[in-house]
Specification:
There is one protein chain. This protein is of the alpha/beta class and about 625 residues long. Among the domains are: about 180 residues, Rossmann fold (3-Layer(aba) Sandwich); about 90 residues, no CATH class; about 100 residues. It is built from 21 helices and 22 strands. The strands form 7 sheets. Strands 5-4-10-11-3-12 form a 6-stranded parallel beta sheet, with helices on both faces. The protein starts with about 55 loop residues before the first strand and ends with a strand.
């Protein structure tokens, strides 16, 4: 029998907001951090509220600098900690149950009853629990990767939250973005997140309609928007000592970002580089009560807003933090425990710091990391293959290899190879099919559906983009659609190739979109049939009452008349890109390795890109519990 898996499935005057005195209220903790007495450089007014007067102040060493804490009852902080947890080692379960063990000993029998078994920690897990117990917090916040995980954990562990609350410990689940949004609202009042805020600001600066501008000069809009977002994620123009100053952003700073993230500037470099600092400067203006996704952590950091501190901040998926989130976390916890797996860092393309864990280890002043290396998920043969991948990854980083091990009760496991034209006969409901890109997944899922099987592809948001793309083409029939898509692809491909610095990632994206449309158009008689297939394949989540479908990140059905608003994931053969498969597992996993779209991807060139491709392979291998099959094909 397989051992119980420890994984829990898982500003200046424009603001019009003059500094004022008021008490910040937070769901997490009632606290004051009066670090807002220093304005943003170049500003003539203070940003945010001033601290309440006459409060006793005590100093705590937090991360890289001293932070004033004015809560008289504040719990002295124990040393910070970093936990490097390999795949399937139960990092989530270790953290959450560890909180119950470390701080709820008086109700531990009740926690055991709620879990359903008496968890016996491994020696490595016990070290993590012991580290947690070094402090006696009254407030604990667990930072999850996204909102759907927060919702899942609130449901799964709500009973333990209630029991801990009864003994005076407040355990909360949140995202780092959610914490930042709350800080902004607490300081300035309610604000609305909108995805097009940066485009609106660009339009204001250029005194033009952004929709028309995107048609006439798409490079300026796209490149400026990307660079503004990356400046926020990487904190360009900000230093801990001097705060944020848009005037300090140099062309060299922007060149570095453009080169690293392969942003097309063509002949618009000077225009774009002139826009970026001004857009960032205007992003500090909250008169319209609007922010975007990146602002949620950027504004609290660059405006030095009072961030309520919890006694213990647990940060999961620490390998995927960007510089901005790192700085936010340093300010949000009196004590921080960072947990993650650097070997699963795959979001460098989206602004994540590829060296997040070692950088945070330095910022948190942690000398020795704790480790979870014994997986309770993967079969022994699968662990052996994953170790070969890890050895290569560790060698690329110049590190000594740390052995990935399997718990003694794990199955022996099986590693095999198959051919693309024959493997489908062996796939069953509940199996997982992975690929580096989406197009082969769609083709395979449609084959399964045609054969009368249930099959789905993760990424309903991507499916929605394809539907909109088809609608914009206004094709008369599938043949017309294929012809238009082919012309579009040839035009966009040549346009990208003519650029001074063509983006391999963009070329892959173009090819993927084309091939996805081809897959849906095959054997379709009408455009309506194509869109119906897209709706069927990209299932996301579904409401069991009204059958309405939602993205994977959705939590509840919007139809209030439904008996239950809780969404479920349909069953069948799950197809997923490797990036979207993080956190998932299946008894049997098939990795598609088509020519030209294998992992590691042949178009990865820079050192960090190649490293993250090997991370993708490690992630794919470690989704499997009993059997991992590499499917080779042309």
């Amino acid at each position: 029998m397989r051992a119980h898996c420890w994984n829990s499935h898982r500003a200046d005057d424009k603001l019009g907001l003059i500094a004022r005195t008021k008490k910040i209220k937070s769901d997490l903790v009632d606290d004051w951090t009066p670090a807002v007495n220093s304005p943003v450089r170049g500003s003539s007014t203070l940003i945010g509220p001033a601290p309440p007067p006459n409060l006793e102040r005590t100093m705590f060493q937090e991360g890289t600098k001293s932070v004033v804490n004015t809560t008289p009852e504040a719990v002295p902080a124990a040393p910070n900690a970093v936990v490097v947890a390999f795949a399937g080692t139960g990092k989530t379960f270790t953290q959450i149950v560890g909180v119950g063990w470390a701080f709820g000993q008086e109700i531990w029998p009740e926690i055991i009853e709620g879990i359903g078994f008496d968890p016996v920690p491994s020696p490595e897990q016990q070290l993590v629990w012991d580290a947690l117990r070094e402090s006696t917090p009254k407030t604990v916040t667990y930072c999850a990767f996204n909102r759907s995980i927060v919702s899942e954990f609130s449901d799964s562990w709500g009973w333990m939250q209630d029991k801990l609350r009864d003994i005076g410990l407040n355990l909360q689940f949140a995202t780092i973005n959610g914490l930042g949004h709350r800080v902004i609202c607490n300081t300035f009042g309610r604000v609305t997140p909108i995805s097009w805020r940066t485009e609106n600001i660009i339009g204001e600066i250029l005194a033009c309609n952004t929709r028309e501008m995107k048609r006439r000069d798409p490079i300026t809009i796209e490149a400026t928007g990307k660079l503004v977002g990356l400046c926020k994620l990487t904190l360009v123009g900000w230093t801990d000592e001097n705060g944020f100053d848009a005037d300090q952003i140099t062309h060299a700073d922007l060149d570095e970002l453009a080169d690293h993230y392969e942003i097309d500037l063509n002949d618009k470099r000077d225009k774009v580089y002139g826009l970026v600092p001004e857009v960032l400067r205007r992003s500090l203006d909250l008169q319209k009560r609007e922010i975007d996704w990146d602002d949620q952590n950027w504004l609290p950091v660059v405006l030095d807003l009072p961030i309520p501190k919890v006694d213990l901040l647990l940060v999961d998926e620490g390998q995927d933090l960007n510089r901005c989130k790192q700085q936010f976390c340093l300010r949000a916890g009196r004590r921080t425990v960072l947990v993650g797996d650097i070997n699963q860092a795959v979001y460098g393309f989206a602004g994540a710091d590829v060296d997040s864990i070692p950088r945070m280890q330095n910022l948190l002043k942690v000398d020795n990391v704790l480790r979870l290396t014994e997986t309770r998920r993967c079969g022994k043969a699968i662990v052996a293959v994953a170790n070969q991948t890890l050895k290569r990854i560790h060698h690329m980083r110049g590190e000594t290899h740390v052995e990935f091990t399997a718990h003694e009760s794990n199955p022996n496991g099986k590693v095999s190879h198959a051919k693309m034209d024959t493997y489908a006969d062996t796939v069953e409901d509940g199996d997982m099919v992975l690929c580096r890109v989406n197009a082969p997944l769609i083709s395979e899922a449609l084959k399964h559906i045609k054969a009368g099987r249930k099959a789905l592809v993760r990424g309903r948001d991507f499916g929605g983009q394809l539907v909109k793309f088809v609608d914009r083409m206004k094709p008369s029939d599938p043949g017309d659609l294929v012809e238009q898509v082919d012309n579009w692809y040839q035009s966009e491909f040549k346009k990208e190739r003519r650029k001074r610095n063509p983006s391999d990632a963009k070329l892959i994206s173009l090819e993927t979109k084309r091939d996805c449309i081809y897959a849906f158009a095959e054997d379709s008689l009408t455009i309506a049939e194509i869109k119906a297939k897209m709706e069927l394949v990209f299932c996301g989540k579904v409401c069991p009452c009204c059958d309405k479908r939602y993205n994977e990140s959705a939590e509840r059905c919007g139809n209030r008349s439904c008996k239950t608003q809780r969404l479920i994931t349909p069953k069948g053969i799950l197809h997923s890109s490797i990036h979207r498969a993080k956190g998932l597992e299946a008894n049997r996993v098939f990795l598609l390795q088509p020519k030209g779209a294998s992992v590691p991807h042949p178009m990865a060139k820079s050192t960090w890109q190649i490293a993250q491709e090997w991370h993708c392979l490690y992630i794919a291998q470690t989704r499997a519990i009993e059997e991992f099959t590499t499917v080779e094909g042309v």
